[in-house]
Design brief:
Elements lengths: L1 H21 L4 E5 L4 E10 L2 E6 L3 E6 L3 E15 L4 E8 L5 E5 L4 E5 L3 E6 L8 E12 L4 E13 L3 E14 L2 E16 L4 E12 L4 E15 L5 E16 L8 E14 L5 E12 L6 E14 L2 E12 L10 E13 L1
Antiparallel strand pairs: 1-2, 1-5, 2-3, 2-9, 3-4, 5-6, 5-9, 6-7, 7-8, 10-11, 10-21, 11-12, 12-13, 13-14, 14-15, 15-16, 16-17, 17-18, 18-19, 19-20, 20-21
Length: 345
């Protein structure tokens, strides 16, 4: 008799667990045309909501197509254009184009267009890594020259900080001779001091044979200020201090070179079709123990999301150094790179 009772209790418990699991709430996006998307909200940035639909896979939906949102499966870091930061969930609103942010203490309604940025605070380490990988190749038969470019940009996000690991390489195969034309690798750690201010540390590596640079290793620290708090337009201005160790293609390595940096980053998203985003990152460097030395690194990228997870990008880069290095006859370099990229979930 006791065994029968135990089995009955066990059966009831299993049924309860099964019903609880099946009744677990899913994130939901309610579109203005009446359609409903059910799945998982990943992030919000530059006027676009990245949503993993259970039937349609990864979807990017623009603000103006959304009636309201429910995102309760995980905890989010939510930034609004009035420079507020919340750690909580998003509840749907009865008002068109509005959501309710719930951080466990207060509930506050916001127009969806006032959501500046939303980041998922994942529990699993691997889930916290987001980013893109890109590859491009061009070949000229007449000169037997092939050019390969490869780049990546990965981000690891926590509640208060973010780690950014990015890089790009350009190789030339000139009639069987392989040349490493241009290389750049960056590892940066950014800490959110406030909704407006950020602090950061980082390491950089650069190579540019056009400018006669065999290698440059940089260590930097600094502080930045966010501005342009728009749903589709975001900017940050950063300055601090940089220490360089350079090795020209000809000549010996330098000692420590100190510079004062000024970096500006502007991101813009185009709401109307096609799905385009623009990024502009100019960097200025003023030499402190090399009198009169000035450098500039610039990067403009246009990205077109053709289909889910697949991007086509066009990058324009330029580099200037008013003091030409040994082994180089020029102090200015520029170029254009075309990539086909894959976005990680």
């Amino acid at each position: 008799m006791k065994l029968r009772n135990y089995l009955l209790v066990f059966f009831c418990v299993m049924q309860f667990i099964s019903l609880s699991a099946s009744a677990q709430e899913r994130d939901t996006v309610y579109l203005r045309n009446g359609q409903i998307m059910i799945g998982q909200l990943n992030k919000i940035s530059l006027g676009v909501i990245e949503f993993d639909d259970v039937d349609l896979s990864l979807q990017n939906v623009r603000y103006h197509k959304i009636k309201t949102i429910k995102a309760v499966m995980r905890t989010y870091r939510i930034e609004t254009i009035d420079k507020k930061v919340y750690f909580g969930i998003i509840k749907p609103s009865e008002v068109y184009g509005e959501v309710v942010i719930d951080d466990g203490f207060i509930e506050k309604a916001y127009p969806i267009v006032d959501l500046y940025k939303l980041v998922t605070l994942e529990k699993k380490f691997i889930k916290k890594i987001k980013g893109t990988v890109g590859l491009g190749y061009s070949y000229t038969k007449s000169s037997d020259i092939g050019r390969t470019n490869f780049d990546w940009d990965f981000k690891f996000t926590e509640e208060k900080y973010e780690v950014d690991f990015s890089g790009s390489f350009i190789f030339t195969n000139n009639q069987g001779e392989k040349i490493r034309d241009r290389e750049a690798v960056s590892l940066a750690w950014l800490y959110n001091i406030s909704p407006v201010l950020i602090g950061g540390l980082g390491l950089n590596y650069q190579r540019n044979i056009e400018l006669g640079l065999a290698s440059r290793f940089q260590q930097f620290f600094g502080f930045g200020r966010r501005f342009l708090f728009k749903s589709n337009l975001q900017g940050v201005l950063i300055s601090g201090a940089v220490i360089n160790q350079e090795r020209p293609l000809e000549g010996s390595s330098t000692g420590s070179l100190y510079e004062l940096p000024l970096q500006f980053k502007l991101d813009y998203f185009h709401y109307a079709a096609p799905n385009l985003s623009f990024s502009f990152v100019p960097k200025f460097f003023l030499g402190l123990n090399q009198e009169g030395r000035k450098r500039y690194d610039g990067d403009i990228r246009v990205n077109w999301e053709v289909i889910n997870n697949l991007n086509l990008s066009l990058q324009f880069y330029s580099n200037f150094d008013n003091r030409a290095l040994e082994g180089s006859n020029t102090n200015f370099d520029y170029g254009m790179v075309f990539n086909v990229g894959y976005k990680l979930k």
